[in-house]
Each structure stands twice: as structure tokens, then as C-alpha cells.
Amino acid sequence: MIARKLMLLGEIGVGKSSLAKRLVFDRFETDYKPTLGVDIYRYDIPATPTNQAMSLIIWDTDGNFGEAMFQHVYMKEASAAFIIGDVTRRQTLDTMLSLSKGFRSQFPGRYEALIVNKMDLFDGDDASIPAELASGRSGVFHTSALTGDNVKQAFHEAASTMLRRGL
């Protein structure tokens, strides 16, 4: 089984740890404990008729780094990144777009996707979401770590795309 390192990037409190725990353990914890440094999770994706099995090594970062993260040793050998924002906090979505540009600039060709998280709290006001983050756009996932909506789909699509690109 091949293994690929996938980074979770974004501001503090956007749900990076909650997404990782929902994926790996299929649970949501209401007792919030901020990540200090990095937590590492492993998630195995079984083989399909079109893809070989893959183990995602998920690096859940603490969110204090901003764009300095791209210079950090944590990024070494990362094949991909999910950049995460909280739909209830517009500034985290703006930061997400900025981090996305930085990631593409520093790591051209690597897989990168955007996760708009906490959709279970979304009031339906599409004006609060930048157009680049609209539902249905390629490379953008609307998720809820609380309910599990679209969490597995995002990670499975990342794995499939990395295999297809040979990352």
C-alpha cells in the first residue's frame, strides 16, 4: 500500500482536528482541545477497480503559522493539502483563499483543495461565501465535521486525484 502525506491547513478553530477525527474515528467530540504543533492520523483507503489502496498520513497543524507554514519542516514531502475555513467566520474563508494561493505558489503541481467546514451552522446566505468557494466548484468541498457530510468524499477524492497525477 502506498502512503501519502496530506496537510490540514487553516486558522485556529476552523475544524481541522474535527474533520480528521470524523474521518479516522467516525466521531465528533464536543470537548474542544486546540492542537499544539501537529497531530498525525492515518487513514487507509481500500483499493477499488480503478485505484490502488492508499494510506493517507494526515498532518493536522495548529493553525498558528499562517503563510510561514510553507517554510516549515512539516511541509516536507507533503503530497497534498486541504486548506480549511469556517463558513460562520468570513475572515477564515479569506485566509483560506490566501493560503491556497501561497500553497500553489510554493508547491506547484501538488494536490490542493479547499474545505468550507461547519456547513451544519450555515444560515443559507450565499453572499457570505466568496464566489471562489461556491458549492459544486472543482476542488471545493462543503463539509460538516459534526454530521460527517462530505468528509469521506473529500479525502477519497484527494487520494484518487493524487493517484491519477502520480503524486
What does this structure look like?
The protein has 167 residues and is of the alpha/beta class. The protein has one domain (2-165): P-loop containing nucleotide triphosphate hydrolases (Rossmann fold), CATH 3.40.50.300. It has three helices and six strands, in the order βαβββαββα. It has a six-stranded mixed sheet with strand order 2-3-1-4-5-6. Strand 2 and strand 3 (54-61) form a beta hairpin. The longest helix has 17 residues, at 90-106. The two termini are 14 Å apart.
Q: What is the CATH superfamily classification?
A: P-loop containing nucleotide triphosphate hydrolases
The proportion of residues forming helix, as a percent range, comes to: 25-40%
Q: What is the count of β-strands?
A: 6
Radius of gyration in whole Å, from Cα?
15 Å
What general form does the structure show?
A: globular
Distance between the termini: 14 Å
Order of helices and strands: EHEEEHEEH
Helix count, per DSSP? 3
What does the largest sheet look like? 6 strands, mixed
